[in-house]
Amino acid sequence: MLHSFFCHSLKVLVRILTIEDSGEDIKNYVEDAIKEISKNVSIKGFRKGHV
User: Fold this and answer.
1) Counting Cβ atoms within 10 Å, is residue 47 exposed (0-12), middle (13-18) or buried (19+)?
2) DSSP state of 44
3) What is the model's pLDDT at position 5?
4) CA dihedral 40, 43, 47, 51 (to 10 degrees)
5) 21 pairs with which residues across the strands?
6) Is the whole model's pTM more than 0.70, yes or no?
């Protein structure tokens, strides 16, 4: 589990934030989000909740 972040100051109120994380953590988050969203999505030709 790799986590790192960098903050670069461009101006007084402008920052660039770079976040690095392992692909597995991101993959799990995306899969969970897709499962949650698919429960409420309806597409013609598919049963609700089975998209």
Assistant:
1) exposed
2) T
3) 84
4) -70
5) 3
6) no
Beta bridge partners of 15: 9
45-28-19 Cα angle (round to 5):
125
C-alpha gyration radius of the chain: 18
Largest CA distance in the chain: 53
pLDDT tens-place string over residues 1-51: 567 888 999 988 899 989 888 778 788 888 999 888 888 877 788 777 666
Q: Give CA angle at 18 (13, 19), nearest 5°.
A: 130
